[in-house]
Amino acid sequence: MSDARDPYDAADSRAVPHPVLKKYYESESDRRPFVNALFDNAAEHYDFVCGLGSLGSGRYYRRWVLLHQGCGSA
Question: In angstroms, rounded to a whole number, what is the distance separating the alpha carbons of residues 8 and 31?
Fold first, then answer.
């Protein structure tokens, strides 16, 4: 059995999530800016998508939880 670790083995906590996706970025050092841009560009749609996913109940649910956990008035 080899001591070498497979960099794509999900059981290895140091594993990268996937190999370099050359279609989107050329090197591992380009991955973080690419992923950050994905999140930055999606951020403006986050509340809308969450609202759809929760059928509009998310805001009311969070307020209810805060009120019932003694966190003051919401």
Answer: 15
Q: What is the pTM of this model?
A: 0.45
Question: Is residue 60 classed as helix, strand or coil in its secondary structure?
Answer: helix
Taking the C-alpha atoms of residue 34 and residue 48, their distance in angstroms, rounded to an integer, is: 23
20: phi > 0 → left, psi -120 to 50 → alpha, else beta; which?
Answer: beta
3-state secondary structure 3-58: CCCCCCCCCCCCCCCCCCCCCCCCCHHHHHHHHHHHHHHHHCCHHHHHHHHCCCCH
Structure-token pair, residue 51: 């609202």
Tens-level pLDDT at each residue, the chain (74 residues): 555 655 555 555 566 676 777 888 888 788 889 889 999 999 999 889 888 888 888 888 888 888 988 776 65
Alpha carbon 72 to its chain centroid, in Å, reads 30
